[in-house]
Every structure is written in C-alpha cells, then in structure tokens.
C-alpha cells in the first residue's frame, strides 16, 4: 500500500502565516517513506476568487490518493482587524454602546464579521468536500484526513460537517499519518473516523505519541512545494521553527496545554539550528519559535540556553526571532543570550498585573520575578518591542485588581520605555476543554452541549468572556478608547482606566493574600 500513495497536503485559506504544520508532516513522511510522492498546496498563497479553480487544477494534475487538509484557525476574537473587520469592537459596540447609532454600527459591523466567519467556515468545508470528490474521480479509494490548530480545538463540532470516512486528527499528526501509511491500526492515536466511531471522551486530553524531531529537510520541501518562495519575498515574514512541544501549566483559559500535551518534549538543539541554517541560507532572517511557550518552566532554561548558544556559534548573527515567553523563567545569562541572538519581539501572557488574580487563574506566574527578569533583559541590551497580553475580567476582577494591573503595567513601562511595551488588551475567547469552560458550566453561564463554534450574538456574548458586574464597565471603557485613539487601543484603555480608578501600590499588586488559595481550589 505504502509506495502507491500520493499525498496532497492542502493548507486551507489563512492569513499569510508560514504553513509549518504541513511542512513538518510531509518532511516526517518523507523521512520514513522516501518513495511516496507528495505535494504541498497552500491556499494561503492563492487569491480567494481562485480557490476552487486552483484546488481543482492541483488535484487534476497530482491525482492524490490521500488528501491531508490542514486548517489553522476558525475562531478569531481579537482586538485586531480580522478579515471582516474588528470583531471585538463590533461586538462591544453592539452589546455596550448607549448611543443607538453606535449600536447600529456595531450590529452592522457584527453582521459583517458573522457573515465573513460563517462564509469562511462553509467555504472551507466546501473545499474539503470538493477536493475529495475530485480526487475520487482518479482514485475511487482516495481518503481524507483533516487536522491542524482549528480542528484540534473544534474536533467535536466538526464531526457532523465532514464527509463520512474522514479521519479527524487532534494535535500533532505525524504518528497518525505514519500508522495510516503502514496500514496499521491507528485507533489509539488522537483521532476518530466520521461515521465509524465517535470521538472518545476527553480525547484531546490524551498524551500525544512520543516523537523525536529532526531538522526539517528544506531541500526536499522545495521540490514538493512549487510556491515555497512566496514566504521569502517579503522580508517581514517570521518563518516558523518549532523548538519543543508541550506546556506543563494549567492556565484556566488555555487550550494549548491540552492540544500539545503537558509533557514538554525538546527538539535537539543541533537539529533546530540545522533547520534554521537551511532557511538562513535561503535568505530568511526572521524566525518565530512556534512553541506554546519558548521556556515553559525553569526546568527548561538550560535547553533554551543551549539552543541560543548554538545559534550564536552557528554564525547566524544577523537574525531576529520572536516567541511567546514565560518571563518568570529567565536569568541574566539567558537574557544576555536572548539579546545577543536577536530576539526582537516577545509576548508575555501574564493576563493580569494582580498576583492575586494570576493565582486564581492558575497561571503559576510570580509577577515579582517577571519584573526582575525584565530588568535583567533590559540590562542585557534588549531594546525592542514587548507585547504584554492582558485579559481583563476573567475571574474575580475588582476595581482594586484593575488598579494593580495598571500599576504593574506602569512598572513595565519604567523598565522598557512606554513606546516599547504594548499592552495587548484581549478578552478571553472561551475555548472548549479549558478549566474556564468548566467554571462557566458550574456557574450556569453556559450549558453543556453549547456550540463553541457559534458566533451568534447570544452565544458570542458568553464566549467573548466579559461577565457582569464589570462587563458593562469594561465595555464602556473600550468604546471610549476606540473613539479617542483607535490606533493605540491598548495604551488608551490603560490611560482611561487609570484616569477613572487610579493606581494601586506596587506591593499590593505583587502579593496575594493566602486565603485566596481556598477560592482558587474551588475553581478546580
Ligand atoms: C505560534 C502561534 C501563533 C503565532 C504564529 C507565528 C508564525 N509565524 O508561525 C502568532 C502569534 C503570529 C499567531 C497568531 C494567531 N493565531 Co496562533 N497559534 C500559535 C500556536 C501557539 C502554535 C502554532 C504552530 O505553529 N505550531 C507548530 C506547528 C508545527 O504545529 P501545527 O501547525 O499546529 O501543525 C501540527 C498539528 O496541528 C498537526 N496538523 C496540522 N495540520 C494537519 C493536518 C492533518 C490532516 C493532520 C493529521 C495533522 C495536522 O500536525 C502538525 C505537525 O505536528 C497555536 C496553539 C498551539 N499550541 O498549537 C496557536 C493557534 C494556531 N493560533 C490560533 C489563532 C486563532 C491565531 C490568531 C487568529 C489569533 C488572533 N485572534 O489574532 C492569530 C492570527 C493567525 C492568522 N492566521 O492570521 C488558534 C487557531 C484555532 C482557533 N481558535 O481557531 C490556535 C490553535 C490557538 C488557540 N488556542 O486557539 N499564532
Ligand atoms: S503557560 Fe501559556 S501555553 Fe502554557 S498553559 Fe499557560 S497560557 Fe497556555
């Protein structure tokens, strides 16, 4: 069976983000089955009007026996210009504006976003069906596998929307494909087959099959991906490189820790550098370490150090890189290496500047340590942009905890400079399989069986987590910020909050009273 397979990897339409998932999958398959013919087809690089035609042409030409569809994102709540407009702003205008004209604008904008969302969803499902039907013209036995970030989060909802016989994969797909191609039983992988079996209860919580990652072979990738150079034309693309998988934390709203698993698996530093070097030789200078967290815990600081040292030794001295960083897991040596290897952007997701809330959200962060480490980073010469992700109103927020967040943020500004710290104000989009979802059930905010993929206004209002009593207050503040300074939304929100509520003492922000532990356990 193996040698006769022809695999087409199709990355579904997406903003231009390097399709690292299908690159790694095809690389893995090639290392095991060098005779199998493969092709990568990235709809992210095709203009929307051509999607169907381009897919048809590709299938007619390649005649795949196995279609691997990779779906990156579905849910796009964020304070950024989404494909159909700014979803957060529209939703807030609709839910919270007093002025009827602004509410109307929000409703119309929301309608636009909702229409764009559902049309993309149906369009992608249509492309998957179309691809299968077309492939079956040439090979009636052709099979379909779907996976990727979006499928990992919404695998349960997709089961009624995909053709019977589709293999739906959760999390990393290497070992599933391997077993499939060997004609082995793959039922113990994190997957199910539409029409044949139901997704197992808590499927996403199962641990992924261990796998030793080696450097991706880009000489090979180039031969199976005609549009490879698309991502190399503009020099502001950050090309994905994964240095590890997994995150051991339990942050109450986060699904990464279940998608990737809690067990951290480090890709050998030499292999990561070898992979980067191949991209470097092709002119790439910007890398995004796509790990859930680049330094997930103190235990992995040594591995990060080793990797950065090896990057320095490799002579790639003019590169830049970015990543999600848990800034509690740094020391002066690491900070020095980060600055020297060209880290020019990082995101810290502390969520709140109140230690009390950080504990309640089970994030395991020590905010005092974060501040100290940021000072070390600055002293090491880091002088670029930091995005600090705040999600207000997740749980037990009060005016006091908001004041603490403002104080904390001002402290970060003192360290890095006001223009260098970008407060990214998110509202948590509630995701399935998280502790926060459980909390929502327990507090009768959501009922089991709700549809997490729905963005109809009545569901979206709950999923776009901003509960009362503070919901309307934040709604109003955000609306004011969009009105006053839409291009610097985060900083404006902080300014308005400070004007209205003032600041707390830094010491209050950094300490969490002991009795909170009880409540925190209640959340569990
Ligand atoms: C790093 C990252 C980013 C970086 C990307 C940087 C870069 N240049 O690559 C940044 C910060 C820019 C980013 C932005 C966004 N992201 Co993001 N991101 C991630 C993260 C942490 C890792 C993705 C990654 O590259 N992993 C490494 C590669 C190798 O894995 P992979 O692509 O997932 O592929 C593996 C598996 O999925 C699987 N697989 C993939 N395809 C297929 C197909 C088949 C058939 C099979 C069997 C398996 C399979 O096998 C692959 C190899 O192991 C994930 C969360 C996570 N932990 O997975 C979110 C995630 C992908 N992001 C998500 C979202 C929503 C976004 C945003 C839209 C957020 C926003 N609202 O603005 C933006 C915009 C993205 C865009 N398209 O425009 C969502 C998507 C799901 C959803 N909710 O719809 C995720 C899953 C996070 C989440 N909790 O929901 N992101
Ligand atoms: S540290 Fe980051 S990736 Fe890990 S569980 Fe928390 S939010 Fe998720």
SSE layout and pairings?
Layout: E1 6-11, H1 20-32, E2 37-42, H2 51-62, E3 66-70, H3 87-96, H4 100-138, E4 143-147, H5 149-154, E5 167-169, H6 174-181, E6 191-193, H7 218-224, E7 239-241, E8 244-245, H8 256-259, E9 265-266, H9 269-281, E10 286-289, H10 301-313, E11 320-324, H11 332-341, E12 343-351, H12 355-360, H13 367-379, E13 385-391, H14 399-416, E14 421-426, H15 435-442, H16 457-463, H17 471-484, H18 489-501, H19 506-510, H20 516-523
Parallel strand pairs: 1-2, 1-3, 3-4, 4-5, 7-10, 10-11, 11-12, 12-13, 13-14
Antiparallel strand pairs: 5-6, 8-9
TL;DR of this structure?
The chain has 524 residues and is α/β, with parallel strands linked by helices. Helices cover 43% and strands 13% of the residues.
Defining traits:
524 residues; alpha/beta; 6-stranded mixed beta sheet; 6-stranded parallel beta sheet; 20 helices; 43% helix; globular; binds cobalamin; binds iron/sulfur cluster
What does this structure look like?
With about 525 residues, this protein is an alpha/beta fold. Helix content is about 45%, strand content about 15%. The strands form three sheets. The chain has a six-stranded mixed sheet, sandwiched between helices. Strands 7-10-11-12-13-14 form a six-stranded parallel sheet. Helix 3 (about 85-95) crosses helix 4 and helix 11 (about 330-340) crosses helix 13. Cobalamin binds next to helix 1, strand 3, strand 4, helix 5 and helix 6.
């Amino acid at each position: 069976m193996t040698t006769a397979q022809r695999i087409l990897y199709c990355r579904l339409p997406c903003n231009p983000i390097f399709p690292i998932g299908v690159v790694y999958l095809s690389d893995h398959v090639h290392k095991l089955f060098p005779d199998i013919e493969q092709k990568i087809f990235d709809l992210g690089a095709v203009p929307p009007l051509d999607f169907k035609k381009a897919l048809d042409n590709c299938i007619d030409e390649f005649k795949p026996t196995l279609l691997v569809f990779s779906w990156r994102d579905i849910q796009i709540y964020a304070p950024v210009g989404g494909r159909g407009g700014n979803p957060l702003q529209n939703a807030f205008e609709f839910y919270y504006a007093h002025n009827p004209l602004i509410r109307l604008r929000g409703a119309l904008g929301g309608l636009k976003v909702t229409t764009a969302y559902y049309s993309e969803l149906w369009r992608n499902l249509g492309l998957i069906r179309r691809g299968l039907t077309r492939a079956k013209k040439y090979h009636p036995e052709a099979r379909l596998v779907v996976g990727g970030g979006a499928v990992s989060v919404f695998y349960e909802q997709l089961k009624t929307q995909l053709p019977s016989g589709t293999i739906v994969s959760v999390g990393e797909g290497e070992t599933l494909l391997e077993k499939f191609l060997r004609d082995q039983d793959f039922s113990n992988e994190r997957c199910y087959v539409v029409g044949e079996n139901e997704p197992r209860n808590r499927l996403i919580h199962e641990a992924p099959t261990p796998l030793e990652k080696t450097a991706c072979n880009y000489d090979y990738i180039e031969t199976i991906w005609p549009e490879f150079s698309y991502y190399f034309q503009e020099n502001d693309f950050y090309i994905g490189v994964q240095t590890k998988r997994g995150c051991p934390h339990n942050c109450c709203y986060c699904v990464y820790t279940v998608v990737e698993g809690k067990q951290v698996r480090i890709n050998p530093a030499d292999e990561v550098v070898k992979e980067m070097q191949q991209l470097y030789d092709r002119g790439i200078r910007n890398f995004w370490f796509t790990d859930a967290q680049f330094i997930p815990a103190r235990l992995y600081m040594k591995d990060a150090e080793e990797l950065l040292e090896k990057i320095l030794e490799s002579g790639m001295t003019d590169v830049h890189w970015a990543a999600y960083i848990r800034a509690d897991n740094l020391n002066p040596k690491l900070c020095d290496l980060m600055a020297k290897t060209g880290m020019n952007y990082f995101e810290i997701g502390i969520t709140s500047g109140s230690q009390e809330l950080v504990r309640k959200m089970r994030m395991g962060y020590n905010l005092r340590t974060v501040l100290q480490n940021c000072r070390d980073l600055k002293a090491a010469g880091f002088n670029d942009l930091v995005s600090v992700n705040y999600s207000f109103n997740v749980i037990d927020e009060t005016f006091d905890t908001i004041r603490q967040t403002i104080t904390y943020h001002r402290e970060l500004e003192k360290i890095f400079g006001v223009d260098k710290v970008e407060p990214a104000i998110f509202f948590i989009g509630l995701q399935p399989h998280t502790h926060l979802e459980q909390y929502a059930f327990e507090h009768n905010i959501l009922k089991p069986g709700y549809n997490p993929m729905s963005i109809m206004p009545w569901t979206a209002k709950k999923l776009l987590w901003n509960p009362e009593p503070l919901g309307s207050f934040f709604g109003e503040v955000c609306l004011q910020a969009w009105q006053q300074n839409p291009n610097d939304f985060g900083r404006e929100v902080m300014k308005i909050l400070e004007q209205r509520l003032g600041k707390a003492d830094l010491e209050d922000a950094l300490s969490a009273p002991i009795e909170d532990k009880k409540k925190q356990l209640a959340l569990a």
